[in-house]
Specification:
Strand content: 15-25%
Distance between the termini: 27 Å
Shape: globular
Number of helices: 17
Structural class: alpha/beta
Largest sheet: 7 strands, mixed
């Protein structure tokens, strides 16, 4: 099996020289353990590896954390640490006493913002990183940088990234970013995604919510995938899979916690009072979304009813990954007001708003940029806008509005 270098390696090693504890969170099977075991072998200092998927180790960690640390002394790599939040206070005590950079490497299959105990116990002591399914930058081996709407930056990226037409983009959407498939370890994507849902997602959902009907949950996650790129509607999802709205909201929260979906929240401020309040739903892995919505191949998606929604999902998730893979948090939103004016994506950076429209066209019309005017009333400055589309070359309408291939993200 080919190991695909991860963008987070460089960020992790840099932070390992500064922080006594580092926590890498993200969905299961995206390569957290593989990356850290590779780095552990390269550092060659005798770091101990312990997985809390091991029920014996987990029981000791939960019931007798003091004994756990008597047996397993730093430098230590604890995998799936979310199973034993009881360890966090003991890690805090060790860190405060010893101050050794890199003593604790931790992974968790829950997004760190939503993990119990981390914020309270390890605030200021732990470097938090989020690993997601492989980005296109990682798959193609191109340099990982946060996506920014800057003409000179995009010109430089165009020099090193091979152009990709519409069919290629939809093949990337269909293939997704699960390392087991991209690396060639497995070739049957249906079996991989089916096993992923049954083995990991189902198990983690039951861990967080108690007993659930596997059939109802499968219907639920399929209903969620069919609404990707849309504003969240608990009523529609609930009706589609015969559960109540409270359960639908709870299960979506769990999918967010285990890193399957994420929300894009609407941009608003005191001046823009007519904006909607409902977030939009996206999947981190478009391959999983395609599997759930039963698309058989990339060409069918390209011509199908969800081609626009999946293209938007792919583009937004790639931009989000470009920030997390650089160790930065993305400040991204969408805009929609009660007059139904909508901007697909807004990146906020250094007090400036950069509006983005995402379209399945190689020849966008300048009319698409008119909606960017709605954020002129914002107290923040409006920056350069861009139409991200299936064009093969970077170009521009004018100084304030660019046309950029989605492949440059």
């Amino acid at each position: 099996m080919k190991y695909i270098s991860r963008a987070l390696e460089e960020v992790f090693l840099r932070l390992n020289k500064q922080f006594p504890a580092l926590l890498v969170t993200g969905p299961r099977q995206v390569g957290k353990t593989t990356m850290l075991q590779k780095l552990m072998a390269e550092e060659n200092i005798g770091r101990t590896y312990v997985s809390l998927d091991d029920l014996v180790e987990r029981q000791m960690a939960k019931n007798d954390p003091a004994m756990f640390f008597q047996i397993h002394k730093p430098p230590l790599f604890i995998d799936e640490v979310q199973y034993a939040p009881e360890l966090f206070p003991y890690i805090k005590i060790w860190v405060d006493k010893n101050h050794n950079p890199g003593d604790f490497w931790l992974t968790g299959s829950q997004i760190f913002k939503l993990m119990r105990g981390v914020q309270e116990s390890l605030a200021g002591r732990v470097a938090l990183l989020q690993m997601l399914p492989l980005s296109q930058q990682e798959i193609l081996g191109s340099p990982t940088v946060p996506f920014e709407i800057n003409l000179n930056t995009l010109i430089e990226r165009e020099k090193i990234i091979k152009p990709s037409g519409t069919p290629e983009i939809y093949h990337r959407i269909f293939n997704g970013g699960m390392p087991a498939l991209i690396s060639g370890q497995y070739t049957d994507r249906r079996v991989v995604y089916s096993s992923y849902i049954n083995t990991y997602i189902n198990r983690d959902v039951k861990e967080l919510s108690g007993t659930i009907s596997s059939l109802k949950f499968m219907n639920f996650i399929t209903a969620a995938a069919s609404l990707t790129g849309q504003m969240v509607n608990y009523k529609t999802i609930a009706e589609n899979c015969e559960i109540d709205q409270t359960t639908a909201e709870s299960w979506l929260n769990i999918l967010e916690t285990i890193g399957i979906i994420f929300y894009l929240h609407p941009y608003s401020n005191n001046v823009l009072k007519r904006t909607v309040k409902t977030p939009k739903l996206y999947f981190y892995d478009t391959g999983l979304a395609c599997y759930l919505t039963k698309w058989s191949d990339a060409d069918t998606i390209m011509c199908g009813a969800m081609n626009g929604a999946l293209l938007e999902n792919f583009t937004v998730s790639e931009i989000v990954k470009s920030y997390y893979n650089s160790g930065r948090e993305p400040f991204v939103y969408y805009y929609r007001d009660k007059d139904t004016k909508e901007i697909d994506l807004i990146i906020e950076s250094n007090g400036t708003l950069f509006p983005i429209e995402i379209k399945k066209t190689a020849t966008p019309d300048i009319k698409l940029t008119r909606v960017f005017n709605v954020i002129d009333k914002s107290p923040l400055k409006r920056g350069t806008g861009v139409i991200l589309c299936t064009a093969e070359k970077l170009s521009a309408f004018d100084n304030n509005n660019l046309i950029a291939p989605i492949g440059l993200i």
